[in-house]
Amino acid sequence: MSAYGVVDLGSNTVRLVVYEVDGKRKRGPRRFRELVDDKVMAGLAAHVADGAFQPSGIKRAASVVRRHLRLASVLGCERVDVFATAVLRNCENSEQAVEALQRRVQVPVHLLSARDEAHLGFVGATIDRPAADATLADMGGGSTELVRVEDGLDVEEVSLGQGSLSSYATHVSRVLPTPGEVEAIQDELSRRLRSLPDFDRYRARHLLAIGGSVRAIAKVLAELRGEARTKTLSRDDVEEVLDLLRRDPDAFAHATVRCVPVRIHTVGTGCAMYARLMDELGAEDIEIRQHGVREGYLVERMLG
Predict the structure, then answer these.
(1) I need a labelling partner for 122 at 20 to 30 A (CA). Which of 144, 201, 220, 286 fits?
(2) Are strands 153-160 and 32-40 parallel, antiparallel or unpaired?
(3) pTM over 0.85
(4) Are 93 and 52 in contact, with CB atoms under 8 Å apart?
(5) What is the pLDDT of residues 199-208, one digit of tens each?
(6) What pLDDT score does 268 carry?
(7) CA–CA dist 202, 186 (Å, integer)
(8) What span, in angstroms and rounded, lies between the C-alpha atoms of 91 and 9?
(9) What is the pLDDT of residue 263?
(10) How many Å is the maximal CA-CA distance in the chain?
(11) Secondary structure of the chain in HEC code, one letter for each residue
């Protein structure tokens, strides 16, 4: 067995996941299992000002990455890769920011394009089972990737420059969004979707979803109902969580603190976006997949 580490620089979190990989398998995909998942709420999106990633953000990112690299070394990782997504991809000084970060941490930082992120999300989502015709959604802090899946392949993808954290930063004045702010978040998403030249290509009765935003919605729903967490969300399920936010924000906050406290400021924005996404795409339900971009990166970029 060998250990591989993946460090994921996101808009809100910087995460190290260490996988134990079966190195003896000669045919077929190599099996792996997660050993360590170490997440730091770095809030890198807050270090973007006037479109540019600030030196304070480089300092913060470098500090967390170095911490993760030390842990990966202690755990005996054979290889550790660092990649970044929307927070560094979408800033005006993207190339300079990546170079500055690499100088500080002394390892390569792989900047994933929007297409890379969407494709690797699809690879991760379909590791354990294939996907029928559907649309895959990956909502992160700074962007949302949509992937059209046909005949088990990712045939088309698009990245929307809106995520749960960027929606919070743009539209929310306090901790939880008000009903008016929920509407503003949803209207922005509708505008972005409707501006796509091939918007109709992403319409689907069923959505597949990966990422922390959709899992957080499922956790809050389970907390409200006193039930085990579901792997499929109906439109009514998502609306139930969103309706509580609109009707009784205190009850929503208490439920969120009990099950996903670190996401208290983004569960509402993510829920608002998923509710509108389902409406716009005509989706009846969301199937939550276990694996995502990190596992896709491991399988395709590190294990080949």
Answers:
(1) 220
(2) unpaired
(3) yes
(4) yes
(5) 999 999 999 9
(6) 98
(7) 17
(8) 14
(9) 94
(10) 56
(11) CEEEEEEEECCCCEEEEEEEECCCCCCCCCCEEEEEEEEECCCHHHHEECCEECHHHHHHHHHHHHHHHHHHHHCCCCEEEEEECHHHHCCCCHHHHHHHHHHHHCCCEEECCHHHHHHHHHHHHCCCCCCCCEEEEEECCCCEEEEEEECCEEEEEEEECCCHHHHHHHHCCCCCCCHHHHHHHHHHHHHHHHCCCCHHHHCCCEEEEECHHHHHHHHHHHHHHCCCCCCEEEHHHHHHHHHHHHHCHHHHHHHHHHHCHHHCCCHHHHHHHHHHHHHHHCCCEEEECCCCHHHHHHHHHHCC
Write out pLDDT tens, residues 29-57.
678 999 999 999 999 999 999 999 999 99
Both structure tokens of 128: 């354990």
Structure tokens at 239: 């609306």
Q: Are 173 and 263 within 8 A, CB to CB?
A: no
